[in-house]
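G., the chain you wanted modeled:
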Amino acid sequence: MSGRRSLSAVLFVTLSLAACNQQPARNSAGYADAAPESMMLEAAPAAASPADTGAPSNTAIAVAVPQLAYNYEYSFVLPAARLEAMVAAHQKACDAAGPATCQMISARGSNDKDASSLSRTLVMRVTPAWLKTWQSRLDADIKKANGRISRHSVESEDLSLQIVDTEARLKNKEALRDRLAEIVRSRPGKIADLVEAETQLAQVQGDIDAARSSLNVMKKRVATVHLTLTYESEAVAASSGTFAPLGDAMNSIVRNMVWALASLIHLIAYAVPFVLLGAGAVWLLRRWWKARKARRGDQ
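Predicted structure as tokens:
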């Protein structure tokens, strides 16, 4: 019993210390709370004192590069007859680069019955080098297909703090795992005590695996570019471009006519029961009046 209490006490103290060590890493108020020395401005030490060498002070400042995840979006307007060929060419270029350079995430599209209005979307994750090469020949490819770039946007998300915070938590979890593993090895006891210690060890190892996966995902987002390509035929682009107000006005006319017709039908539907009741009442009244006149004539 005393050995079990001792092992439980050691586990409690170990977990408490690990929890205390993790608190600074989870503080997201700023880089200074969680960032290592490489993420902060720091002065590089001089090789010799300026007083000793007589040279002017020349202090170098090291600035960490932000960990940015970029999202690029391109929209193209092309003739319907050449849209599919352009989509196929971009897919082929991605496949030829290989999965380590270009990965196709999704491909979707839509078209009307006569195939005159087409829309396609490709979503990729590519390396910056591949993106630069692809951009260098993009204008020529689009002009060759008699198309144009209708929209282009670049957005970024700074993952620096998240990466630093995850790395700090991962380091603390690994230290806790090592301490728990040492407890399991150096303190043999009852089976219940070992099971409790190994359960804690397995939980910490699961947290480590989850943190590593999250860190790998963030680093992959920084190392690659999320690229979205949207292709529209000229008919689709025109319907949502210059003539969009005219189309909206025509739709409003049709919508108002349909609404008026529907209102009339509703009015008729409400009036029919009252009309039938009124007609029945008039018929009964006329019949009663005729019968009364007939009785007066007999008298």
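Confidence is low (pLDDT under 50) at residues 1-5, 17-55.

Shout if anything looks off.
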